[in-house]
Design goal:
Blueprint lengths: L7 E7 H6 L5 E2 L11 H20 L7 E10 L4 E5 L1 H16 L7 H8 L11 E2 L2 H12 L8 H5 L2 H16 L11 H10 L1 E8 L2 H13 L6 H10 L5 H21 L3 H13 L7 H9 L4 H19 L5 H6 L7 H11 L5 H17 L4 H16 L4 H12 L20 H12 L12 E5 L18 H8 L5 E5 H7 L4 H9 L13 H9 L5 H19 L3
Parallel strand pairs: 2-4, 2-5, 3-6
Antiparallel strand pairs: 1-6, 3-4, 7-8
């Protein structure tokens, strides 16, 4: 095509023309996201137009037009398919329906109604249809008439209806003199909305080009996520409608898998990028993925991503796997998920051994104050080895080499301030998992407390801890590992600042208010079973036990 107008045609149009022209019919393609604008976006849109209207009313040379952005559409036989701009078009349609149903005396009633349905055609065809899955809801609750007495439940489940209620509130405020947002002549504001608010409608005559244009526009900072941009980038290379619809269905399955995994699409794509590159990305997520996807078949790519997403789901759902339970506690790193998902993706024969090895590696690094920067490159090196199906012994050599550059993690365990270090609860939980064969994952929540066996207020006059401790002996032991154990919230409250004999009763389930069951933590039951008294010597003995068990769990041999 030599003529640019044969490829696409930009048109500056008022809102009245966008919705009122003879060919102004819009439909949403299957790959579009559902309607999602929240109150903040609705209010911002309203006040932006309102401010422009007020400026223009005070001085006609200012804001003679308010630009609402561009909309990218593909010309079909009797309508336009909306590639970019569906959120604004849907929001405006809901605004028109709200104006229609609030029984306001306006001269623009015909314009408003004609922007919702084509009043010329006998069938009264809708100017905008949304996703097939949501169209019935959109028509019943918005197009056919808005029920402003809808229940809270109906409102909570219907984003279209929520927007209508936001607009109702804004419109009513604009008509009340005592309100700060009062508009003296509301009809003039509606005139400004329809006649002086404009959009650039970019009409494309090829869907692939339209998606490419959409990608270029949104790559430059408009309101889309990298995942949306990648989706459009891949779709632009699929010309067959059946294949495109199939691609979209797989994409929906991936989105659902992410929800089941409690992972965002962004996280999934970051993990997948690590799998593809085996090195630290240097550019934005969408730029890196575009480079990786270049010259590859979109259908093959999306199926591979789905397989990877299913691997992440399987990993995240492994609530009875001790290593994964421990890895879930790691702060600010997701490298381990990419390593394990990669091992599953390429069907590495030693998945279990790799899982156990990286658990040991990350915990040794964490306990010895390792930063995320310290483990980053080693994580990518491990990933590269896993992807090439290197043996566990090769991966182990790599890990040991990295750990040898730093102080041994064991040296960090004997810390009189262990209680204040973030790894102390996961470490105690590791003893629970491995020493006592606990099956289920224990989340670190507000209900999980670290119990000071020698209590923080040990030297209170009504307690007898002073029989065995002095200020000198208690200070270095109070927050050390040997003096710490795990309790649920209720038991921790009951046991805090008690004598040891009272604490053991509470650990056993006797709170003095009736028997409420033993603590569920085996390492806390061990305290009851092993020690009749709590002294400096027993704290040292328990620390040695913790040290030995920790080495059994995390040492790499």
């Amino acid at each position: 095509m030599n003529n640019i107008e044969e490829i696409f045609k930009p048109e500056s149009k008022s809102i009245k023309q966008i919705f009122g022209d003879i060919d102004a019919f819009y439909q949403m393609p299957i790959y579009q996201r559902p309607y999602s604008w929240d109150k903040e976006r609705i209010v911002q849109l309203w006040y932006d137009i309102l401010e422009a209207h007020k400026n223009n009313k005070e001085d006609e040379t200012i804001d003679s037009n308010y630009f609402l952005g561009s909309v990218v559409v593909v010309k079909k036989s009797d309508s336009y398919e909306v590639v970019d701009g569906q959120q604004r078009l849907t929001t405006l349609t809901i605004l028109f329906c709200t104006l229609r149903d609030l029984n306001i005396d306006l001269n623009q009633k015909k314009i408003i109604n004609n922007s919702i349905r084509d009043l010329v055609e006998s069938k009264e065809r809708l100017k905008l249809t949304t996703h097939l899955n949501n169209q019935a809801l959109f028509e019943e609750t918005i197009i056919k008439g808005i029920n402003f007495n809808a229940s809270k439940k109906e409102l909570a489940e219907n984003r279209f209806l929520q927007t209508a209620f936001y607009f109702k509130e804004l419109i009513l405020k604009a008509q009340q003199k005592e309100e700060e947002d009062f508009i003296p002549d509301f009809g003039e504001f509606i005139d400004y909305l329809f006649n002086k608010t404009t959009m650039i409608r970019i009409v494309c005559f090829n869907e692939g080009f339209a998606i490419k244009l959409f990608t270029v526009l949104n790559d430059r900072g408009l309101d889309l996520t990298p995942a949306d941009i990648i989706k459009a980038y891949l779709l632009q290379n699929i010309s067959n409608e059946i294949q495109r619809n199939s691609f979209v269905e797989v994409w929906k399955r991936i989105e659902n898998t992410c929800k089941l995994s409690n992972e965002s699409l962004m996280t999934l794509f970051n993990l997948y990028l690590y799998y593809l590159k085996n090195e630290n990305p240097k550019r934005s997520l969408q730029e890196e993925l575009k480079e990786q996807f270049k010259s590859k078949v979109p259908q093959t790519i999306i199926l591979d991503i789905e397989k990877f997403a299913n691997n992440i789901l399987e990993i995240n759902s492994s609530s009875k796997d001790k290593d994964i339970s421990m890895l879930k506690y790691l702060p600010q790193t997701i490298y381990w998920k990419s390593i394990l998902a990669t091992a599953k993706q390429i069907e590495h024969p030693d998945y279990s051994e790799i899982k156990n090895l990286i658990s040991k590696y990350y915990y040794q690094s964490w306990i010895s104050n390792g930063t995320s920067n310290r483990i980053k490159q080693t994580s990518f090196n491990i990933l590269k080895k896993v992807k090439s199906k290197a043996s566990v012994s090769e991966i182990k050599d790599l890990v040991i080499e990295n750990l040898s550059k730093y102080d041994n993690y064991i040296d960090f365990l004997n810390n009189e301030n262990a209680y204040w270090l973030k790894w102390h609860k996961p470490l105690l939980l590791s003893l629970e998992y491995y020493e006592h064969d606990v099956k289920e994952f224990v989340p670190i929540s507000s209900d999980l407390h670290t119990e000071h066996i020698l209590p923080k207020e040990w030297n209170r006059k009504d307690l007898n801890w002073s029989d065995n401790f002095s200020e000198e002996t208690a200070k270095p032991l109070l927050n050390s590992l040997g003096n710490l154990t795990l309790l649920s919230g209720t038991k921790n409250i009951l046991a805090s600042n008690r004598n040891y004999s009272d604490k053991t009763e509470i650990y056993n389930g006797n709170s003095g208010k009736g028997f409420d069951g033993k603590t569920s933590f085996e390492i806390t039951k061990d305290v009851i079973n092993k020690y009749n008294n709590w002294t400096s010597e027993t704290i040292a003995e328990r620390y040695q036990w913790i040290l030995n068990k920790t080495r059994e769990i995390f040492d790499i041999e």
